[in-house]
C-alpha cells in the first residue's frame, strides 16, 4: 500500500517542530542482575513498542540506546523486560539504569497509513493515486495524522472527528474532478467525460456528433 504523506509532511502541514512527543514516565528501577524494569502500573503488554532515554544526570542500561524502538515483555503489572524485536528474547542488560524514562512509541507510520486509506475511501475511482500524491491529499493526510498523534500522545487538540468530517467534505469536492482510473490502461477510462469537449472538422463547436434540437 502507498502512504500519501511522509513524516516531513506532518511538520509541513500539521505540526510544530518539537510538539509531538509521547507521554513518558520515570521507571522505578532497571537492573542488570535480573534484566527487569520496574514501574508500578506500567500498562504495557508484550510486544508494545517502547523507547527509553535518560533524565539529566542519568544513564541507560547497556546495551540500550536512547530513542531506539524496543518491545516490552510483560511480566506483571509492575515489571517487564525488553526485547529488540516483537516476540523476541529479553535483552541481557549489562549495567543498571539510572533515572531512566520510558515511553510508548507513537505509531506514526500506522497512523499515516490509516489516513491514506481513509482518503482512498472517497476516491475509489482513482485509487491508487500517483506518487507523489497531489498536494491537497498530502496536506489532508498530514493534518489528520497530526491530530490523531497529538491525541494519542495526550496533548490537547481539536476534535479528530470534526477534522475527519471537514476532510471528508473537502475530499468529496476535490474527487469530483478526478477522472476514473483504468488499471489496465495508461489513460483515464472515462474518456466520455472529455470527448464531448473535443472539436472536429465536422463539429468545430465541440458538441459531438449528436443532433442538436
Describe the structure in your own words:
The two termini are 49 Å apart. The protein has five helices and seven strands. It has helices at 7-14, 108-120, 135-152, 160-175, 192-195, and strands at residues 24-26, 29-31, 36-38, 49-59, 70-74, 79-83, 98-104. The protein has 213 residues and is of the alpha+beta class. A seven-stranded antiparallel beta sheet has the order 1-7-4-5-6-3-2, with no helix packed on it. Helix content is 28%, strand content 17%. The longest helix has 18 residues, at 135-152. The chain is elongated and about 65 Å long. It has two domains: 7-16 and 108-185, no CATH class; 28-104, Elongation Factor Tu (Ef-tu), domain 3 (Beta Barrel), CATH 2.40.30. α2 crosses α3. A hairpin with a 4-residue loop joins β2 (29-31) and β3.
Amino acid at each position: 500500500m502507498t502512504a500519501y504523506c511522509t513524516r516531513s509532511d506532518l511538520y509541513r502541514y500539521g505540526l510544530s517542530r518539537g510538539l509531538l512527543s509521547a507521554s513518558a514516565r520515570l521507571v522505578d528501577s532497571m537492573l542488570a542482575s535480573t534484566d527487569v524494569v520496574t514501574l508500578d502500573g506500567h500498562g504495557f503488554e508484550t510486544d508494545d513498542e517502547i523507547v527509553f532515554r535518560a533524565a539529566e544526570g542519568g544513564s541507560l542500561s547497556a546495551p540500550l540506546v536512547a530513542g531506539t524502538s524496543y518491545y516490552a515483555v510483560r511480566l506483571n503489572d509492575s515489571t517487564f523486560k525488553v526485547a529488540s524485536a516483537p516476540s523476541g528474547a529479553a535483552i541481557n542488560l549489562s549495567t543498571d539504569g539510572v533515572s531512566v524514562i520510558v515511553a510508548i512509541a507513537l505509531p506514526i507510520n500506522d497512523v499515516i497509513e490509516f489516513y491514506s486509506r481513509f482518503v482512498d475511501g472517497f476516491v475509489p475511482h482513482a485509487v491508487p493515486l500517483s506518487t507523489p500524491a497531489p498536494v491537497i491529499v498530502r496536506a489532508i493526510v498530514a493534518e489528520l495524522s497530526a491530530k490523531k498523534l497529538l491525541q494519542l500522545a495526550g496533548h490537547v487538540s481539536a476534535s479528530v472527528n470534526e477534522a475527519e468530517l471537514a476532510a471528508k467534505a473537502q475530499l468529496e469536492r476535490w474527487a469530483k474532478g478526478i477522472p476514473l482510473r483504468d488499471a489496465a490502461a495508461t489513460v483515464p477510462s472515462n474518456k466520455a467525460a472529455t470527448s464531448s469537449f473535443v472539436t472536429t472538422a465536422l463539429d468545430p463547436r465541440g458538441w459531438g456528433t449528436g443532433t442538436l434540437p
